[in-house]
């Protein structure tokens, strides 16, 4: 699986590849997204991590797809790649994902790793309600992550749908996340982290996949664009009375809309970065031509990572039901500072 095979997530792929290129590989990460690209992105990330001939063309990075590591990961045959996923009991308390590896590999190859949990159980012909990740799976995780890497590189674990873990398995995973052996990388992949232990969420670096700009609903753009454009303009002036009034408008949205608003802002930042860093034509589509033509130059290689981190932290706070006015005002101050460091 290569980054180029994943539609509509090039900006996320660029960020993940840049982290690997700079040596900033977190041992515990989570890829979240209510989108079929989440698991393919995890596999493409690992393929790029292990690739021995990485490519950098047209402003984008990708694995070569041809070296032995690329081929093995692409075929899900790399001996240091381990997969854990929800599995049915099959009438036995000792069953685990290890017993369904062949079926899961066949399923991923058939679906291009983009299948849903419902499709996985349809593939097996089992009841989705009985599926989970159990103690035996946790024991398997501990076992494989204590093995010496066969290829002398990374120990790689992908946990698909970690929210399906029962409490015992979740607690065992938490211990693994706390003290993994050197050269270990653990990727959790799910639609959402709701229901996951807070202690697990706090120990992983989270990357959220979002629908590409072309797939946004027109009504969402109509609602969020005027708010974000007005807010961003005020960040340069920092007139507190006007800024406070704008934040009040943003906080007046319901909780789901507040989160969508922050995600919309993040997608605009990434689009701007692709304009300035890769020379891509700008299609912000905010409805404000002056903003669309002038603002992209404010987002550069010097501040994009900081800005994305700030927005992700604000989204995390809103997801945890933080006071919206406080979270959005804190976001405003931090964004204002970051935008001036271009």
> Biggest β-sheet, characterized?
5 strands, parallel
CATH topology of the largest domain: Rossmann fold
* Content-based structural category: alpha/beta
Oligomer: single chain
Q: Provide a count of the helices.
A: 14
What is the percent of helical residues?
Answer: 40-55%
Termini separation (Å)? 34 Å
Helix and strand run: HEHEEHEHHHEHEHEHHHHHH
How many domains would you count in the coordinates? 2
Strand content: 5-15%
From the alpha-carbon coordinates, what is the Rg to the nearest angstrom?
21 Å
pLDDT averaged residue by residue: 87
Task: Describe the global form.
Answer: globular
Provide a descriptive summary of the structure in words:
It is a single chain. The chain has 342 residues and is of the alpha/beta class. The protein folds into two domains: 3-208, Rossmann fold (3-Layer(aba) Sandwich), CATH 3.40.50.300; 213-339, Zinc Finger, Delta Prime, domain 3, CATH 1.20.272. 50% of the residues lie in helices and 9% in strands. It has 14 helices and seven strands. It has helices spanning 10-21, 38-50, 68-74, 101-111, 117-124, 135-145, 167-178, 198-201, 218-237, 240-251, 255-278, 289-294, 304-319, 324-339, and strands spanning 28-32, 55-57, 60-62, 81-84, 155-160, 184-190, 205-208. The strands form two sheets. A five-stranded parallel beta sheet has the order 4-5-6-1-7, with helices on both faces. Helix 2 (38-50) runs antiparallel to helix 3 (68-74), helix 9 runs antiparallel to helix 10 and helix 13 packs antiparallel against helix 14. The chain is globular, with a radius of gyration of 21 Å. The mean pLDDT is 87.
């Amino acid at each position: 699986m290569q980054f180029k095979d994943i539609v509509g997530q090039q900006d996320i792929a660029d960020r993940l590849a840049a982290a690997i290129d700079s040596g900033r590989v977190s041992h515990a990460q989570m890829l979240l997204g209510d989108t079929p690209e989440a698991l393919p992105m995890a596999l493409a990330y690992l393929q790029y991590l292990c690739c021995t001939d990485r490519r950098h063309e047209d402003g984008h990075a990708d694995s070569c797809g041809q070296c032995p590591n690329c081929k093995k990961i692409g075929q899900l045959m790399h001996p240091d790649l381990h997969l854990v996923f929800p599995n049915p009991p099959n009438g036995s308390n000792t069953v685990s994902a290890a017993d369904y590896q062949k079926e899961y590999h066949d399923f991923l190859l058939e679906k291009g790793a983009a299948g849903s949990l419902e499709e996985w159980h349809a593939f097996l012909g089992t009841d989705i309600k009985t599926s989970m990740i159990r103690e035996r799976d946790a024991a398997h995780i501990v076992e494989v992550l204590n093995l010496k890497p066969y290829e002398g590189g990374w120990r790689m674990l992908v946990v698909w749908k970690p929210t399906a873990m029962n409490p015992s398995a979740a607690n065992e995973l938490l211990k693994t996340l706390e003290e993994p052996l050197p050269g270990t990388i653990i990727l959790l992949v799910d639609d959402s982290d709701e229901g996951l232990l807070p202690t697990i969420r706090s120990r992983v670096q989270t990357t959220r996949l979002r629908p590409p700009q072309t797939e946004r609903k027109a009504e969402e753009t109509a609602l969020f664009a005027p708010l974000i454009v007005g807010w961003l303009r005020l960040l340069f002036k920092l007139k507190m009375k006007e800024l406070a009034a704008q934040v009040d408008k943003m906080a007046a949205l319901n909780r789901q809309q507040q989160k969508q608003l922050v995600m919309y802002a993040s997608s605009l930042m990434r689009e701007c970065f692709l304009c300035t860093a890769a020379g891509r034509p700008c299609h912000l589509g905010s409805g404000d031509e002056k903003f669309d033509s002038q603002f992209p130059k404010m987002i550069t290689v010097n501040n994009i990572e900081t800005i994305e981190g700030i927005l992700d932290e604000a989204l995390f706070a809103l997801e945890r039901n933080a006071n919206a006015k406080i979270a959005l005002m804190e976001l405003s101050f931090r964004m204002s500072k970051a935008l001036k460091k271009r």
